[in-house]
Design brief:
Layout lengths: L1 E6 L3 H13 L7 E4 L4 E6 L1 H23 L3 E5 L5 E6 L5 H23 L7 E6 L5 E6 L20
Parallel strand pairs: 5-6
Antiparallel strand pairs: 1-3, 2-3, 4-5, 6-7
């Protein structure tokens, strides 16, 4: 069994997350316990951990290809702690806005599976491919409340 610690905003959110893990099909873990501090202790078999990592990796590669087809480059660090979206010619704000969440979810999943959730860190940057300027930034502490202004791209949308 592989113990994992996942952090959430509060005990109720942790309980919902733990229930979701146990109710998932295929089952994501053997046991999940919500703690009062908003963390969730998770125990997985090696097979469950490998399956989750494989699915998250496949999803990330699919998203990378989809975004590339829309003029948006995606760079992810090898340790899955840094994500950079680069909006090139023809990129639309709506496509970028819709791509950020699923990419961050896949990257966070891969990082947690690789580290057991220890030392979780995440940095997300949105870069204007024409100027190289960072137009938006969030990290593990600000991501959930992040309201990136993507109006500079055109095509509507906010993340």
């Amino acid at each position: 069994m592989y113990p994992r610690i996942i952090s959430g905003p509060d005990a109720r959110a942790a309980a919902r997350y733990a229930r979701g893990l146990l109710d998932a099909s295929p089952r994501a873990c053997e046991a999940a316990y919500a703690n009062e501090d908003g963390t969730v202790d998770v125990w997985q078999t090696r097979g469950q951990a490998e399956d989750i990592s494989r699915r998250a990796g496949d999803e990330l590669e699919s998203l990378r290809a989809d975004l590339a087809g829309k003029g948006i480059g995606l760079e992810v660090s090898g340790d899955h702690r840094s994500v950079t979206f680069t909006a090139g010619d023809g990129a639309a704000a709506q496509d970028l806005a819709l791509g950020i969440g699923p990419v961050v979810n896949a990257v966070a999943t891969l990082q947690v599976e690789e580290t057991g959730g220890e030392g979780f860190a995440l940095s997300v940057d949105v870069v204007d491919g024409t100027t190289g300027e960072v137009m938006g930034h969030a990290d593990q502490d600000t991501y959930l409340g992040w309201d990136a202004d993507l109006s500079w791209l055109g095509g509507g949308g906010a993340s």
